Amino acid sequence: MLITLSPGEKLITHTHPVNIGYVLKGGLYKWTYENNGKTESALLKTGEEFHGGPETPHHSWNAGKTTIQFILVEKQE
Question: Which CATH class is domain 2-74?
Answer without folding.
Answer: mainly beta
